[in-house]
Design a protein that fits this description.
With 280 residues, this protein is of the alpha/beta class. The chain has two domains: 65 residues, Chemotaxis Receptor Methyltransferase Cher, domain 1 (Orthogonal Bundle); 185 residues, Rossmann fold (3-Layer(aba) Sandwich), CATH 3.40.50. Helices cover 41% and strands 15% of the residues. It is built from ten helices and ten strands. A seven-stranded mixed sheet has the order 6-2-1-7-8-10-9. Strand 1, helix 6 and strand 2 form a beta-alpha-beta unit. Helix 1 runs parallel beside helix 3 and helix 5 packs across helix 6. The longest helix has 18 residues. The chain binds S-adenosylmethionine (SAM). The site of S-adenosylmethionine (SAM) has 25 residues, from loops.
Length: 280
Amino acid sequence: MSNHVDDPVIGSFAPMTISDADFRRLANFIHSNYGIDLSQKRQLITGRLSTTIRQRGYRNFSEFVDHLLNVRDNDEVTLVLNKLTTNYTFFMREKEHLDYFCNSILPELVRRHQKDKTLAIWSAGCSSGEEPYNISMFLFDYLGAQAKDWDTRILATDISEQALASGKRGVYELPDTIPASWRSKYFVDNKDGTHTVAPMVKNNVIFQRFNLMDPIRFKRKFDLIFCRNVMIYFDQPTKDALVQRFYDATVPGGYLLISYSENLSQQTPYRRLAPATFVK
Ligand SMILES: C[S@@+](CC[C@H](N)C(=O)[O-])C[C@H]1O[C@@H](n2cnc3c(N)ncnc32)[C@H](O)[C@@H]1O
């Protein structure tokens, strides 16, 4: 069977096979550098990478994995991360949790920061930007007319360049769960039916590429870290080590918010405050 790029059927659609050894080499590379556990995801790897690998002229996975591991070519690493990360996200995800943030955490943080009027919030694993933009909308709604006196800029990081590029564009199809008043306040309508986040919301989010496996060396410590639906792709030791780094990067009394489908291990240094909500 041909694996040739020009083959209209095989070339475009059929996943290539990957040997056990190449699968292990690729999965180990991703796990040790980016924390993502793909050890049970053979089909995901062949399904998501085959077409692009062919298009780039590799005859099989072996050639591709050799090149990736030996040359560490940035383009190929970016390609693999764009393809193998799961960037699924949407506005108002786990709305009750966002309401909890707005009703219980935000009032406390705003009280604490009456003097410096600065909040340090990090959306870690922000994907295409819906989460940090959504948090900004809650902040602006809560602060109302005072918002202009506050610095609430959110650091939004991800490993996927593709996801970050969509976040920076800020163009979305909006779900019905976005209130009508928010549509007019926080978005600008485009002719094609999509919506671009309004400048004030866009300017409140600073996108940056950051690998969560790296030491956290941002200038400031955080009042609040959102890391929702990211650690589900990590194994337990990777997760525990990351939670410790988050803890060290949080101010005393600061918060970590994960998703309702996740939990932290018993040994976590944080104190559990509410479902998916932890405090230092
Ligand atoms: C499913 S999305 C979650 C998006 C958003 N937080 C939410 O809850 O909707 C997971 C994101 O984590 C990112 N990610 C995975 N491993 C990462 C790593 N090692 N460093 C930084 N981001 C990573 C992925 O690229 C992806 O965009």
